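Example (one chain per record):
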Amino acid sequence: MKIPMFATAALLTLLVGSLTSAVAHDSDQGPHGGHVVEAKGHHIEFTTNGIEIAIYLSDEAHADIPSKGASGHAVILEGSKQSNVPLAPAEPNVLSAKLAAPLAAGARVVVSAKLPDGHDILARFVVK
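Predicted structure:
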């Protein structure tokens, strides 16, 4: 059975859109001044301050999720340069990493982490 090209394209667009919304949902600015993304019932707030990035973790009710026992990494794409930095837990609800240099506006950051509650999260950010 042949499927018309436009039907295949429409189905692919629908699937990609569904996957994107299942992975993360954008929200407003967070309590620490960063961009917040919702993923699997968790709020992930991304901030950068000079040569450090911080990922603040909270639940649907905006209560802090302890970062002890969490692990992850951030993939950073600046222009054509890509780097991968490990994220380390910091009390009370932060995953952080030191960078070699401050991030430029427009840099893209993909955070992947495993939380102490067993959930895997994936969130994408663009540095402003």
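Caption: The chain has one domain: 26-126.
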